Amino acid sequence: MTTSLRFGSGLLAVCLFTSAHAAEYSPDQFLFGDWNGNRTRLHEAGVDLQITYVNELAWNTQGGDDHTGTYADQVMFDAALDLDKLLGWAGAGFHFTVVNRNGKNLNAEADLGVLLQPQEIYGYGSTTRLVQFYYQQALLDDRLLIKLGRLPMSGDIYPFACPFQNLGFCGTVPGYVTPNWYTWPISQWGATARYQLNEEWSLQTALYQVNPRFTEREQGLNFGSPSGTTGYHAVAELGWTPTLGGQPGAYRLGLWRNTGDFEDLYRDGAGRPMSLSGAAAAEHDHGTGGYLMAEQQVWQSAALP
């Protein structure tokens, strides 16, 4: 059994299961063990199942309209199928993830007026959503990995660590500054391809459908595609994972182009700042940009493995 407790400012997150897809499988990773041997038999047959529960508590101590606390949680069901073991399809797999989120949002309850939510687990409200539903295929001696299906625009592209529950320190940053970049748990139809150039360098590209309606609660379990597609979102990313001074690092340089419709965040139709003119925002039918991500471990205790 592995139970993880994370504490932070206003944070208590309890993970009842660790990842079922770790590099070294062991039934001891799970709260309910080996199910009398059934979990190991499923794993050896190519079926890995995972249920994860996370909750986040937050309290407003100063500012806003109310000094109050809120609770939000998420239950996730995840299934990974090794189609090589199940059907003899070399390098093939299938992934399915559904999440259910509940609770209240401290930003709304205390009227904090902050841009990034204090509880990331509340994102896109209380509902059940299809997050992942995709086929993957490894080719060229596993150097090339292709995914096709329903995918969130996070994880493959610009993965970012989430050590705190506040969205200011968690999640895919471009999703908060770029219209039509929807992060977990929102998914849309798309495809990604990642090629491992060598041990340190990789090249990745992705193409996603842009449909703002996928954010609606009513579309949470829609396995199809509602009307309202406005374009596509394309990303190219170069990755470097060096070991510097004996410590691992991860660096990514990316470029993106989005053809979905959106309103300008700063200027009106005449090119003036909206905050001064009071006029309606300018309309755009595309946007382009880039990003740089850097994560570097700088020290590790000799007592740690």
Key phrases:
two-stranded antiparallel ribbon, mainly beta, 305 residues
The proportion of residues forming helix, as a percent range, comes to under 10%
How much is the average pLDDT? 85
Number of helices: 5
Biggest beta sheet attributes: 11 strands, antiparallel
Given the helix and strand composition, which structural class is it?
A: mainly beta
* Strand runs, count: 15
- Rg, Å, rounded: 21 Å
Distance between the termini: 19 Å
What does this structure look like?
By secondary structure, the protein is mainly beta. The chain is 8% helix and 44% strand. The protein has helices spanning 38-45, 83-87, 106-109, 174-177, 274-277; strands spanning 4-8, 11-15, 47-59, 69-82, 92-103, 127-139, 144-151, 188-196, 201-210, 231-240, 243-244, 247-258, 262-268, 281-284, 287-296. The strands form 3 sheets. Strands 3, 4, 5, 6, 7, 8, 9, 10, 11, 12 and 15 form an 11-stranded antiparallel sheet that branches. β6 and β7 (144-151) form a beta hairpin. The longest helix is centred in the N-terminal third of the chain and has 8 residues, at 38-45. The radius of gyration is 21 Å and the shape is globular.
Topology overview:
Elements: E1 4-8, E2 11-15, H1 38-45, E3 47-59, E4 69-82, H2 83-87, E5 92-103, H3 106-109, E6 127-139, E7 144-151, H4 174-177, E8 188-196, E9 201-210, E10 231-240, E11 243-244, E12 247-258, E13 262-268, H5 274-277, E14 281-284, E15 287-296
